[in-house]
């Protein structure tokens, strides 16, 4: 018999082997496929840290890539940050719920959505130009609530196009005429780049993702390239006009009979408006 493994199947299965046996007649064969499914529950991220403005923050993001074997991915994250000594700051927390189906009815089309809620406060500088001393800052509270909806299309088994729409409502209590005192004593106005009271963020997004890694959790060969562009505009129902672009590239090379690997990651982006 002949046995082999299928490296691309490692995305959904921990191991896949093929076995070929003689059939019941000349010229016929029996092919056996044995699969070991990868665990579908994943820990996506952990957040924890501290700095001079925030005594501590802690959070986690988890998900299930194949809920009850239905091919539907669910996930969510929560994070909490305590307020520091900056006047006007408050305890902050945020949460997000996500749902996606990468192959609707077995087709190349997929759909996804997410809901996000943020209860936060934003610090801005009122004195000096360097350092993070609490007395040089003030903060104002804000609240964000909204969602994202999108569709995907698998161009190939390794490449995917995506498009989406985001709509969020932002509630802020902005300070009246905020100012910053420079080191030379000059007092200048501070632009907080937000509208007071209620405003909206509405954007359209386009993306491309090509992934040739046999294992996204512990990659040892192949690579991945992603690129996204998101535009916000009043024509989409928002209060802000801006454009963001982001790109990322990574590649892995196996060493010493694939017992070791070396990789590079490069990423960058820009915000206009």
- Note the main sheet: 11 strands, antiparallel
Shape: elongated
Total strands:
16
Which structural class best describes the helix and strand composition? mainly beta
Number of helices: 0
Q: Which stretches are poorly predicted, pLDDT < 50 over at least 5 residues? A: 1-10
Q: Which series of helices and strands comes N to C? A: EEEEEEEEEEEEEEEE
Portion in helices: under 10%
Radius of gyration: 25 Å
Mean pLDDT: 89
How much of the sequence lies in strands comes to over 45%
Distance between the termini: 63 Å
Strand order of the largest sheet: 4-5-6-7-8-9-10-13-14-15-16
Write the layout of secondary structure elements.
Layout: E1 3-5, E2 13-22, E3 29-37, E4 41-49, E5 57-64, E6 72-81, E7 92-101, E8 109-125, E9 137-154, E10 159-172, E11 179-181, E12 187-189, E13 197-211, E14 222-232, E15 242-255, E16 260-272
Antiparallel strand pairs: 1-2, 2-3, 4-5, 5-6, 6-7, 7-8, 8-9, 9-10, 10-13, 11-12, 13-14, 14-15, 15-16
Please give a handful of descriptors for the protein shown:
273 residues, mainly beta, eleven-stranded antiparallel β-sheet, three-stranded antiparallel β-sheet, 16 strands, elongated
Explain what the structure shows.
By secondary structure, the chain is mainly beta. The protein contains no helices and 16 strands. The strands form three sheets. It has an eleven-stranded antiparallel beta sheet, with no helix packed on it. Strands 1-2-3 form a three-stranded antiparallel beta sheet, with no helix packed on it. It starts with a strand and ends with a strand. Residues 1-10 have low confidence and may be disordered.
């Amino acid at each position: 018999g002949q046995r082999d493994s299928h490296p691309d199947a490692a995305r959904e299965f921990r191991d896949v082997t093929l076995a070929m046996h003689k059939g019941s007649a000349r010229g016929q064969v029996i092919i056996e496929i044995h699969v070991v499914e990868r665990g579908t529950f994943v820990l996506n991220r952990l957040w924890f840290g501290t700095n001079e403005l925030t005594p501590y923050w802690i959070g986690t993001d988890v998900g299930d890539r194949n809920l009850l074997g239905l091919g539907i991915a669910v996930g969510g994250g929560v994070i909490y940050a305590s307020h520091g000594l900056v006047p006007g700051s408050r305890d902050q927390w945020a949460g997000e719920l996500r749902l996606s189906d990468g192959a609707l009815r077995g087709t190349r089309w997929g759909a996804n959505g997410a809901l996000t809620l943020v209860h936060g406060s934003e610090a801005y500088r009122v004195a000096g130009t360097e350092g993070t001393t609490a007395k040089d800052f003030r903060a104002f509270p804000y609240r964000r609530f909204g969602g994202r909806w999108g569709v995907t299309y698998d161009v190939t088994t390794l490449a995917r196009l995506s498009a989406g729409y985001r709509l969020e409502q932002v509630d802020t209590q902005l300070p009246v005429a905020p100012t910053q005192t420079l080191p030379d004593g000059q007092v200048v106005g501070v632009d907080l780049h937000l509208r007071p009271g209620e405003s909206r963020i509405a954007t359209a997004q386009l993306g491309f993702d090509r992934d040739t890694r046999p294992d996204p959790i512990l990659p040892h060969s192949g690579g991945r390239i992603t690129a996204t562009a998101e535009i916000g505009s009043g024509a989409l129902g928002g209060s802000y006009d801006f454009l963001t672009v982001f790109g990322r590239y990574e590649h892995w090379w196996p060493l010493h009979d694939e017992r070791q690997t070396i990789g590079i990651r490069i990423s960058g982006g820009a915000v206009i408006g």
